[in-house]
């Protein structure tokens, strides 16, 4: 068995165990394989092992890989999630090539994505990125400003608001690690109670997926635990 196939199996086992511990149905947790900096071959290997949702952070790198896979493996139906910071000059390609965007934190970027989503594709699935750990992170909208952004995005014609995403600061103390995930779940519930039909809580990475699942994650974004260390620094 190849190492990626092996790792995928281990990660799924971890998801199952964490779900069981939290008394949740593991089928309600999507495993997103984060393939940034990994070559097409690694993605194909994961796809051959049954993985079909992939996360990418860098538009140019991602589009090159997606195009290559679509050209050389036209029968392979993979789902692409954009999870990196978004500059406005990248929105067109993101709207054209991706099925999901997890990292929307500004109305202006959302509007560009909606305007640029090709008419022959279904609406682009959107998660709003929350700055849940405070000062240190530059990405993500503050919880105070979330309701306004959710309202604006929910009426954009070519977007479908699906949920929330966060990248909490890594913590060594398990109690401290739990706090931001719990806060995310509370925000998620508040929006649902306000009438937004959300089904996606995107949180948890290789190092903190168990806690994220325990606190209600419905999508975990896993890179190194599947593909190993990242290959090269991407400049863009
Ligand atoms: C790189 C990245 C991941 C994956 O992180 P790992 O620690 O390698 O699992 C998840 N989410 C985002 C937003 C990332 O940029």
From TrEMBL:
<dbReference type="InterPro" id="IPR011078">
    <property type="entry name" value="PyrdxlP_homeostasis"/>
</dbReference>
<dbReference type="Pfam" id="PF01168">
    <property type="entry name" value="Ala_racemase_N"/>
</dbReference>
<feature type="modified residue" description="N6-(pyridoxal phosphate)lysine">
    <location>
        <position position="36"/>
    </location>
</feature>
<keyword id="KW-0663">Pyridoxal phosphate</keyword>
<dbReference type="InterPro" id="IPR029066">
    <property type="entry name" value="PLP-binding_barrel"/>
</dbReference>
<dbReference type="InterPro" id="IPR001608">
    <property type="entry name" value="Ala_racemase_N"/>
</dbReference>
<feature type="domain" description="Alanine racemase N-terminal">
    <location>
        <begin position="8"/>
        <end position="229"/>
    </location>
</feature>
<dbReference type="GO" id="GO:0030170">
    <property type="term" value="F:pyridoxal phosphate binding"/>
</dbReference>
<comment type="similarity">
    <text>Belongs to the pyridoxal phosphate-binding protein YggS/PROSC family.</text>
</comment>
<comment type="function">
    <text>Pyridoxal 5'-phosphate (PLP)-binding protein, which is involved in PLP homeostasis.</text>
</comment>
<protein>
    <recommendedName>
        <fullName>Pyridoxal phosphate homeostasis protein</fullName>
    </recommendedName>
</protein>
